[in-house]
């Protein structure tokens, strides 16, 4: 069951992603290595035509693809268990990583705009991803949100009443000739 993120002071609970994101990541484990498989097969076939190899190179390329896909499938569950996010009145925090832990904190006052994106597999499953931008570029992203939750978080992050008002700029002195 998903915990509902609410802007809270201090130590808000970490929220898990939607379970359906595991399906997206599994598809990625299958489709991602295809970008290496197709050129690898083309190169392998070209080399095999010119040389007589004891083991067909295409067999090794397909084997590497299967191995990479299986390893990626294996780590989907662990990746899901490691991924959490938290939104408070002060910041947006994410944590992820299986081997190398990554914690990212972005002050809400720094948020300039928020994108809600969804690829074809995410759309088919009713999921979306939030990307948070600050002046220097993308600062954080939260994958595996339901479309409704992503929109609610976007509105929460862009709500202006939580950001201290900016004092008006003083008037410019008159320019003399």
Walk me through the structure:
There is one protein chain. By secondary structure, the protein is of the alpha+beta class. It has a domain at 85-161. It is built from 5 helices and 7 strands; from the N terminus they run E-H-H-H-E-E-E-E-H-E-E-H. It has helices at 21-31, 34-50, 57-82, 120-125, 147-158; strands at residues 15-16, 84-87, 91-96, 102-107, 113-117, 127-134, 137-146. Strands 1-2-3-4 form a 4-stranded antiparallel beta sheet. A hairpin with a 2-residue loop joins strand 6 (127-134) and strand 7 (137-146). Helix 1 (21-31) runs antiparallel to helix 3 (57-82) and helix 2 (34-50) runs antiparallel to helix 3. It is elongated. It starts with 14 loop residues before the first strand and ends in a 19-residue tail after the last helix. Mean pLDDT is 84; it is low at 161-166.
Uncertain parts: 161-166
Number of strands: 7
Mean of residue pLDDT?
Answer: 84
Summarize the main sheet. 4 strands, antiparallel
Report helical residue fraction.
40-55%
Terminal-residue CA separation: 70 Å
Q: DSSP helix count?
A: 5
The shape is elongated
Round the Cα radius of gyration to an integer and report it: 23 Å
Sheet-strand content, in percent, reads 15-25%
Strand order of the largest sheet: 1-2-3-4
Q: Helices and strands: which structural class?
A: alpha+beta
H and E string: EHHHEEEEHEEH
């Amino acid at each position: 069951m998903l915990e509902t993120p609410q802007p809270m002071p201090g130590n808000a609970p970490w929220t898990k992603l939607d379970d359906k994101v595991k399906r997206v990541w599994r598809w990625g484990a299958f489709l991602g290595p295809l970008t290496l498989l197709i050129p690898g097969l083309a190169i392998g076939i070209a080399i095999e035509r010119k040389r007589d190899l004891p083991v067909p190179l295409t067999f090794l390329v397909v084997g590497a693809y299967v191995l990479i896909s299986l390893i990626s499938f294996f780590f989907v569950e662990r990746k899901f268990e490691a991924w959490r996010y938290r939104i408070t009145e002060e910041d947006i925090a994410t944590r992820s990583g299986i081997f190398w832990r990554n914690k990212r904190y972005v002050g809400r006052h720094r948020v300039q705009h928020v994108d809600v994106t969804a690829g074809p597999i995410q759309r088919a499953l009713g999921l979306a991803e939030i990307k948070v931008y600050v002046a220097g570029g993308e600062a954080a992203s939260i994958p595996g949100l339901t479309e409704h939750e992503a929109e609610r978080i976007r509105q929460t992050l862009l709500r202006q009443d939580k950001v201290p008002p900016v004092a008006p700029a003083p008037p410019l002195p008159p320019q003399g000739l």
